[in-house]
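The protein record passed on for reference:
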Amino acid sequence: MDNLFTPIENEALLSVAPLAVRMRPRTLDDLVGQREVVGEGTWLRGAIEGDTLSSIILFGPAGTGKTTLARIIAGMTRANFTEVSAISGGVSDLRRVIEEAKRNLTLQEQRTILFVDEIHRFSRSQQDALLHAVEDRIVILIGATTENPFFEVNSALISRSRVIEFKTLTDEDVSLVLDRALSDERGLAGVCELTDEARAAIINMAGGDARSALTTLELAAELATSALSHAPDESLAHAPGVLPLAVITLDDVLGATPRRALPYDKKGDVHYDVISAFIKSMRGSDPDAAVYWLARMIEGGEDPRFIARRMLIFASEDVGNADPQALLIAQAAFKAAESIGYPECQLNFAQAAIYLALAPKSNSATNAIFAALGEVRSGPLRAVPNHLRDRHRPGSEGYGKYHYPHLDARGYVEQHYLPDGLQRGSFYAPGERGWEAWRVEAVQRDRPALTPTPDASPSSNSNPGFQPDSAPDSDSDSDPAPDPAPDSDSSPNPSPNLSSKPTSDPNLDGAAG
């Protein structure tokens, strides 16, 4: 509650406050940026000026004006404005505010606006405590958050509020903020000037965050002012009775902010946006973009295992059998993340990301498993064909004959492996690039005119000693060893990383059909 000394106390607190606090806009016209939110003719501006505001949730990057707007509303409304900290406040604090709001509404007909900064930090039970009060308009809620409220705030609370998104400030907006701080009496009051290089550096480092820009400006101004105070008088050229200006240079800015702090969160929108850009850049075969987004994650402190997992998934999802070596490269990067960690594993990550970006692409394995899963989940229950069933049980002699491919000179036999009602090509459509395309061509060359028949017997070119009844079952421990692969020098394999042509490939077996 205000008293006689409140203005004096506020002035004392403001005098020692950071520059970003002292320069906080006090009116809607002073608010920089966000014209689509509070510009002339917008719903929110009309509601604030008419003092008819309903519950709202403001979300957007840090330093874009969410808390500032709440302070402006506090200065313009006739309602009682109360603030609760989402960090230190609890359910008991919320209940106290709600009870006080009920008394003000019934006894004085005065509304209460409740401001909760960083509302995403409230637990679910704390958010639930607000539901009825917000629904009945006992309190008007203003929630502010840097996280996406659709993920971090109860859906019931969102449905009772209007969600308003704040955008990152443009470079022109940040430059205007700097100009005001340099000239305003609440700021640097004209005692400093900013070189073009220093201005560009501050804007670049801020990344659309006005608070960050003002903090950097304040620290750089302190360095420039200190250097000016220690400079010899004869080196200062200025008119008599006029104090010299402290010139803020690029060196002052770099000294004030030795390391740029880019906005990055490990669970929020930026996290998902950057990893999405990383994956899409590799999929688009752009190694420069892939390395850039990788660097953004590394600099933001992303868990290296998360990055490695995504590359490991990508190797199968988007490269697949167009370059099977990609999976091994990604696995090696994952191993590096576990055994080496930061900072050295960033070298392994860069190598893997560039390899994956340059690799030929195929999503045939991804499409195949999704198509097969769709059939399993929505199709009929299909029985295992008798000739493929396990033979380690009584009565299995009546299952039909299983033809063991390794006992055929060609290394395969015409035999149906899918359940009844499904044919080769139902799920797998081979890609047209890289090793996969070469392997499909080899299958079509080596196995012409495959006609799948469930009870087909070996062709006339098969081993004359082949006896289907004596062929071992596929899950028997006595399976004979396969024939060795042909010498790599005779293989037309175009991939430099694959030394020999495999003797069989179950995934490609159906390509010739």
